[in-house]
Amino acid sequence: RENCLVTCHVNVHPLWQSELSVSGGTRQSPINIQWRDSVYDPHLKPLKIHYDPTTCLYIWNNGYSFQVEFDDSADKSVIMGGPLENHYRLKQFHFHWGAINEWGSEHMVDSKVYPAELHLVHWNPVTSTSFEEAIMENNGLVVIGVFLKLGAHHAGLQKLVDALPAVKHKDTIVEFDVFDPSCLMPSCPDYWTYDGSLTTPPLTESVTWIIKKTPIEVDQNQLEEFRMLLFTSAGEEEKRMVDNFRPLQPLMNRTVRSSFR
Ligand SMILES: NS(=O)(=O)c1ccc(NC(=O)CN2C(=O)C=CC2=O)cc1
Ligand SMILES: [Zn+2]
Question: Ligand 2 centroid to 36 CA: how many Å?
Answer without folding.
Answer: 25
